[in-house]
Write a structure and sequence with these properties.
Mean pLDDT: 95
Largest sheet: 11 strands, parallel
Strand content: 25-35%
Radius of gyration: 26 Å
Helix content: 10-25%
Shape: flat
């Protein structure tokens, strides 16, 4: 079999899917239902794309058992979670280059750093004193691993990632370009209008299988550590302030901002541009829809929203005026209720 080409039998076996069709059919790529050709495999995860099943030219399609009857006369893989099947299969066809072990000649590695032979250190990367890298770690071009950092086996830093001193990454973490982990938190004491900087003495500790998006920042703790649990997924352009704790397997979309000392539970999902005030506690399994602002504790799991949706400017302005009148209207309503009770 050619490199990068697999049989449907191999794919079905790896995914644990039931194959309806030719086990020897050759698959060399992955594509959408609309774009896939005869040598590619596609998938149906969102019911709104069902209309494309009838016209797809894909050599095979991954679908849930309930969608089988709507498939064209082609090869079909039945899987309860087609999207998970797609996620796993995507790595088979990933064109990203595989970094060879070794230290580039332009990299700077401190004599006291521990770098195993299986690690890959890219051009112009810097590994500072006392840093310890696990087996198979990849440090991309121009990245900086600060003094006394610890990086678990199989973790990868893309180009231009910065880890400040004493940051801890678990195993198999994935840090995208421009991320800064362990920068100083926003800590200042005020005296007669003048701000005095507070040294940030804590660390940032990431668990295993954490993903941090491009240009996301995670501040080090002021005294205790900032903690990111196992399996947490952070999108691009997120700000995590000092001493925040995020529970295992939570996920946050782009532009989320978490203020200092907030404690977030496990399995939480925060929509894009949502924000959480400081010193707030959020229970497990809380889902914030996009642009939600949380200013107090959330003690029960569930879906939470705030703000208003878009409307025509004319109608939105009228409603904004009425919103400012709500307090006065509520007082008048209570007065009317008391009169009626009397």
């Amino acid at each position: 079999m050619d490199e990068g080409v697999f049989t449907l039998g191999e794919i079905a076996s790896a995914l644990g899917a039931e194959l309806k069709g030719d086990a020897q059919a050759r698959i060399s790529g992955l594509a959408t239902l609309q774009a896939a050709g005869p040598g590619q495999i596609s998938f149906l995860a969102n019911p709104s794309y069902t209309r494309y099943l009838a016209e797809t030219r894909a050599g095979a399609v991954i679908v849930a058992p309930g969608s089988y009857e709507q498939c064209p006369p082609t090869n079909v893989l039945l899987l309860d979670n087609p999207y998970l099947g797609y996620a796993r299969l995507s790595h088979w066809f990933d064109p990203a280059p595989v970094q060879a072990p070794g230290i580039h000649s332009s990299a700077i590695v401190a004599a006291s750093a521990s770098v195993p032979a299986s690690a890959s250190i890219g051009p112009l990367a810097v590994i500072e004193a006392g840093a310890v890298l696990g087996e198979g770690v990849v440090v991309g071009a121009g990245s900086i691993v600060g003094a006394r950092c610890r990086i678990g086996a199989g973790s990868r830093l893309h180009a231009r990632v910065t880890l400040a001193h004493e940051v801890v990454l678990g195993a198999r973490c994935h840090i995208l370009s421009g991320a800064v982990i362990g920068s100083d938190g926003f800590g200042f004491a005020n005296e007669k209008g003048a701000w005095h900087r507070i040294a940030q003495l804590g660390r940032v500790v990431l668990g295993d299988d954490v993903e941090v998006g491009a240009n996301t920042t995670i501040d080090r703790g002021a005294l205790d550590d900032t903690l990111i649990g196992n399996g947490v997924k952070l999108d691009n352009l997120i700000q995590i302030a000092h001493n925040v704790s995020i529970g295992d397997h939570s996920a946050m979309a782009a532009f989320v901002g978490i203020a200092g000392s907030t404690k977030i539970g496990r399995y939480c999902v925060f929509g894009g541009a949502s924000g959480v005030a400081g010193h707030v506690r959020i229970a497990d399994k809380v889902h914030l829809t996009g642009m939600t602002m949380v200013t107090g504790d959330i003690e029960e799991p569930g879906v939470y929203s705030s703000g208003t949706s878009s409307d025509t400017s004319k109608r939105w302005r009228k409603n904004a005026v009425r919103f400012r009148q709500l307090d006065e209207m509520a007082r008048k309503l209570k007065q009317l209720e008391k009169k009626l009770e009397g």
